[in-house]
Amino acid sequence: MTVLYWFQNDLRLYDNPVLSAAATVTDDLIPVFILDDTITRPLGGAQRWWLHHSLTALINKLKKQGITLLLRKGNTQQILIELVQKYNVTAIYCHRSYEPAMLQYQQALQRYFAAQEIIMHLFKGYLLTEPSIVKNKSGNYFKVFTPYWKFVSTLITPTQLLPTPNKLSQRSKIVSESLASWQLLPTHPDWSHGFAIWQAGEDAGQQVLQHFIEHGLQNYAEDRDRPDRLGTSRLSPYLHFGEISVRQVWQVIKQAEIAVPGLQKGAQAFLRQLIWREFSYYLLWHFPLFYQKNFRAEFDKFPWLNNQSHLRAWQQGLTGYPIVDAGMRELWATGYLHNRVRMIVASFLTKHLLIHWCEGEKWFWDTLVDADLANNSAGWQWVAGSGADAAPYFRIFNPTLQGEKFDPNGEYVRKWVPELANLPNKYIHDPSQAPRDILTAAGIELGHSYPLPIVNHKIARETALKSYQACRKTNK
Ligand SMILES: Cc1cc2nc3c(=O)[nH]c(=O)nc-3n(C[C@H](O)[C@H](O)[C@H](O)COP(=O)(O)OP(=O)(O)OC[C@H]3O[C@@H](n4cnc5c(N)ncnc54)[C@H](O)[C@@H]3O)c2cc1C
Questions:
Q1: Which residues sit with their C-beta closer than 6 Å to ligand 1?
Q2: Are residues 400 and 457 in the same domain?
Q3: Mutate to test the pocket of ligand 1, among 339, 350, 356, 363 (most ligand atoms within 8 A of CB)
Q4: What number does the ligand 1 atom closest to the CA of 224 have?
Q5: Do 379 and 390 contact (CB within 8 A), yes or no?
Q6: Within this chain, do residues 389 and 275 fall inside the same structural domain, yes or no?
Q7: Residuewise pLDDT in 10s, the chain (476 residues)
């Protein structure tokens, strides 16, 4: 019996219940990965880079067991039908997606193959809980995080983590496309030099988790807000691509919390963040257009501005607000941005520049290695105020104060905005307030070597509040 294992966002062998189940029923396993840009949104540039390296790692891992990963690019349905016929496949195994468009597609395929007497097994496993069954006391879906978090935390029970199947076998002779022919890596220009901080693939994901438990978990509750420290796990791309299973992460952190005194606070704070991931998928599940439509309809009439030069200044890290610019440059250089700085730059775009959150969401989609339909939409809508349980619109971050609070010595800014490196701490987050002689001594000419603020914070704040009030009136 020949079985297809359809890899998607589950690029791992360890604790992969679907792969383990497939391995027990066949001596002819054909793992396949299909690059299809037509079902959901095409991957952004940063994720294409990640995918290339992740698939390289997976190919090598499977090769050690004598298994070839079959790579195909094109229309998923046509390719699966072709493979089923060519290799005389009797069953298909895959993880079920929690992105609504992809799930619909998978279910349609399942019906199609059932009519041909081929079973397509769709397994859960990408999340810790099933969005469809989590309801509040009135039987409705949760729209507020804290009660959701309290409720789902009680539903998650330990399960046996599954070892890497050690008896994968493949009899069919596989003809695969070459990964290089997909041209996932940037060439002209190659903007990926700064991505060398990452190592994709499941072995790297395991090391990142281990390193975080040993060095980050204890102080996570405090350090998670500090972009100048390596205080968070950086597991997000591994979780997104399924290079590590979320239930493994949950369980290992729980075990560490119990076994090691002093880890409780950090572990609780971390597990709460994992539940934000669940909540984002939960919202996307119940509101499938979450990535392009305001969750709160009152925002449909918000008077967003279409200012291309402000949008470009934000994207390039040239707004004149050092913490914003540092964040946007880190994002471009490394494909990653610290959560606190994601909030600051998103607030700046939507509230200081009054540019629609969808513009920011799209930019993040292209530039983040962890770009994720659910988490990205939830993050943007939360900051913009249009989401479920979102930050109220009138809470407008002052980027200078945010910088002073979360990057008190300016180390993060100095790293990513090197032209400000010689400014004293007092002015590092607000160079426009520095006296001329201090600027000269630091080698800075505002408006030339570093931009003047593109908007005035006080005026921008007042304009944003007025726009919001006008929008509320129109909705009455
Ligand atoms: C505007 C905006 C956009 C965002 N876009 C994305 C995105 O595209 N992809 C993405 O994975 N996260 C996104 N986030 C959430 C968060 O910023 C990242 O998950 C986090 O910074 C990843 O770093 P980490 O793995 O070190 O996080 P840690 O602090 O170590 O957290 C562990 C894990 O919990 C999850 N998590 C943490 N914070 C959040 C959160 N606020 N919402 C949902 N899940 C969370 C992630 O899976 C993360 O890997 C966004 C947040 C904002 C404000």
A1: 224, 232-236, 239-240, 273-274, 276-277, 280, 339, 342-343, 346, 364, 368, 370-372, 375-376, 378-380, 383
A2: yes
A3: 339
A4: 29
A5: no
A6: no
A7: 999 999 999 999 999 999 999 999 999 999 999 999 999 999 999 999 999 999 999 999 999 999 999 999 999 999 999 999 999 999 999 999 999 999 999 999 999 999 999 999 999 999 999 999 999 999 999 999 999 999 999 999 989 999 999 889 999 999 999 999 999 999 999 999 999 999 999 999 999 999 999 999 999 999 999 999 999 999 999 999 999 999 999 999 999 999 998 999 999 999 999 999 999 999 999 999 999 999 999 999 999 999 999 999 999 999 999 999 999 999 999 999 999 999 999 999 999 999 999 999 999 999 999 999 999 999 999 999 999 887 888 889 999 999 999 999 999 999 999 999 999 999 999 999 999 999 999 999 999 999 999 999 999 999 999 998 888 777 76
Distance from Cα 339 to the centre of ligand 1, integer Å:
6
How many other C-beta atoms are found inside a 10 Å radius of the C-beta of residue 210?
11
Domain assignment present for 178: no
The CATH code of the domain that includes 15 is 3.40.50.620
| Same domain, residue pair 135 and 276 | yes
Do residues 441 and 260 touch, judged by C-beta distance below 8 A? no
Give the residue whose CA is nearest to atom 23 of ligand 1: 234
Q: Are residues 317 and 420 in the same domain?
A: yes
> pTM above 0.90?
yes
Using CA atoms, how far apart are residues 290 and 453, in angstroms rounded to an integer?
32
- The preferred substitution site among 277, 279, 338 for testing ligand 1, maximizing ligand atoms within 8 Å of CB, is 277
- CA-360 nearest atom, ligand 1: 1
Residues 206 and 144 in one domain: yes
- Is the same domain home to 119 and 132? no
Alpha helices for 201-338 (secondary structure H)? 202-215, 220-223, 236-240, 246-259, 264-286, 308-316, 322-334
In the block, residue with structure tokens 């903007």 = 191
Give the Cα separation of 95 and 114 in Å (integer).
17
Do both 143 and 121 map to the same domain?
no
Give a yes or no: residue 423 inside a domain: yes
In a domain, 313, yes or no: yes
Does 255 reside within a domain? yes
DSSP H or E stretch at residue 18:
helix 17-25
d(CA 375, ligand 1 centre) in Å: 7
